[in-house]
From TrEMBL:
Keywords: Magnesium, Metal-binding. This is HpcH/HpaI aldolase. PANTHER family: CITRATE LYASE SUBUNIT BETA, LYASE BETA SUBUNIT, PUTATIVE (AFU_ORTHOLOGUE AFUA_4G13030)-RELATED. The keyword Protein biosynthesis does not apply. It comes from Conexibacter woesei (strain DSM 14684 / CCUG 47730 / CIP 108061 / JCM 11494 / NBRC 100937 / ID131577). The lineage of its organism: Bacteria, Bacillati, Actinomycetota, Thermoleophilia, Solirubrobacterales. GO terms for biological process: oxaloacetate metabolic process. Mg(2+) binds at E156, D183. GO terms for molecular function: catalytic activity; magnesium ion binding. Residues 28-260 form the HpcH/HpaI aldolase/citrate lyase domain. Its cofactor is Mg(2+).
């Protein structure tokens, strides 16, 4: 076990000091693109205005013969585009692949001061994070990176889910986690060929009732794993994200999956296609009616103590904290988005 007093010390001489508090800028959607695809890169200036996070994907979905082009395309995006306040992330290849070492060397060397977060796929245990942690510290020192590049783990194997608490606590560099339903389904031998979402076969069935038809209700295949991820992240002060929804044609299904994750505590989800950015924005920005109600509770209980009634509902110290979660998120998003500020009823000065 590492000495907890060393947690705030750099892992290499000359590397920047680790952050002990993880930054939480607007993070409703991580928009994926393959920077070897010229059509996608051409959309970067427009997409950067709409998404909270732009991610250059180097791993799965990028063909083997375009791995280097995707890496170099991301370097060009990082060096030439002004993304404003939009964060720039990458997903590097998996740690057992022939590409990951060059991914890290090239990206930290070329755009280390532009990259906010490196997403590491198929993380299975704390050992994977320790490897990346030390290597990044060495590279940061070599290439004069001024602030630590944070690390985001994707949970997409049964072992990764089994070890998720240790992964979350493995390093001060840990920024958050995402959920990878496709690889995870394969790793667990789940019998679904979908990328996230429900399955018509995973249902509960009402009891026999004479000749009346029995009612079924589809259940959420992913509830257990997402809830565990949310707990591990909240317990260590890092951020949980739902991952991808692969049926690009099913906007309603995407919205329902994102909303289940939002309600459970996730801060955002992935967007694979430009149209999923708007879905994530809608879902991961709290509902204006809920925000207005939460503001009323906070105004009614200025010190956050004791018991009160509002619209027939009991309010106390704990509900006050629930309302603070809602209003704090709304305030954060309203600073970026004047339309949301207006919908939430914040003064323009806050926006
Ligand atoms: C799904 C696809 C093939 C449909 O692509 P399409 O070309 O068929 O779609 P379209 O509707 O015809 O596209 C319209 C326009 O938008 C562009 N476009 C389309 N997508 C994007 C994008 N993301 N960013 C920027 N531009 C995009 C596209 O190039 C086109 O441009 P045009 O009008 O100039 O012709 C395409 O959207 C795509 O490749 N998306 C990214 C896929 C990806 O990154 N997959 C990996 C993440 S999921 C994963 O890895 C799993 C996980 C976690 O590991 C695990 O569960 O295990
Ligand atoms: Mg995967």
């Amino acid at each position: 076990m590492r000495n907890p007093r060393d947690f705030g010390a750099p892992l290499a001489v000359g590397a920047p000091t680790p952050l002990l508090e993880i930054p939480f800028p607007p993070s409703r959607m991580i928009h994926f693109l393959d920077a070897s695809n010229e059509k996608m890169v051409a959309k970067v200036p427009d997409i950067a205005k709409k998404t909270d996070i732009l991610l250059g994907n180097l791993e799965d979905a990028v063909p083997v013969d375009r791995k280097e082009a995707a890496r170099e395309g991301l370097v060009t995006v990082g060096q030439t585009y002004d993304l404003g306040e939009t964060q720039l992330w990458t997903r590097v290849n998996s740690l057992d692949s022939p590409w990951v070492l060059d991914d890290l060397l090239r990206l930290v060397g070329a755009i280390g001061n532009r990259l906010d977060v490196i997403m590491v796929p198929k993380v299975e245990g704390a050992w994977d994070i320790h490897y990346v942690d030390r290597l990044l510290a060495q590279l940061e020192a070599r290439f004069n990176v001024e602030r630590p590049i944070l690390v985001h783990a994707i949970l997409e194997t049964a072992l990764g889910v089994a070890n998720l608490e240790e992964i979350a606590a493995a390093s001060p560099r840990m920024q958050g986690m995402s959920f990878g339903p496709a690889d995870l389904a394969a790793s667990r031998r789940m019998k679904t060929t979908r990328v996230g979402g429900g399955h018509p076969g995973y249902v509960s069935l009402s009891d026999p009732d004479g000749d009346n038809p029995r009612v079924t209700a589809q259940q959420d295949l992913w509830h257990y794993s997402i809830a565990r991820m949310v707990d591990a992240c909240a317990a260590t002060g890092i951020l949980p994200f739902y991952g991808p929804f692969g049926d690009i044609s099913d906007d309603e299904g995407c919205e329902a999956q994102f909303r289940a994750a939002f309600l459970l505590g996730c801060v955002g989800a992935w967007s694979l296609h430009p149209k999923q950015i708007a879905i994530a924005k809608k879902v991961f920005s709290p509902d204006p009616d809920e925000v207005r109600f939460a503001k009323r509770v906070i105004e009614a209980i200025p010190d956050g103590r004791g018991v009160h009634m509002l619209d027939g509902k009991m309010q106390d110290d704990a509900t006050w904290k629930q309302c603070k979660v809602m209003v704090s998120l709304a305030e954060l998003l309203a600073k970026k988005d004047p339309e949301l500020a207006e919908a939430y009823g914040f003064e323009p000065a806050t926006a």
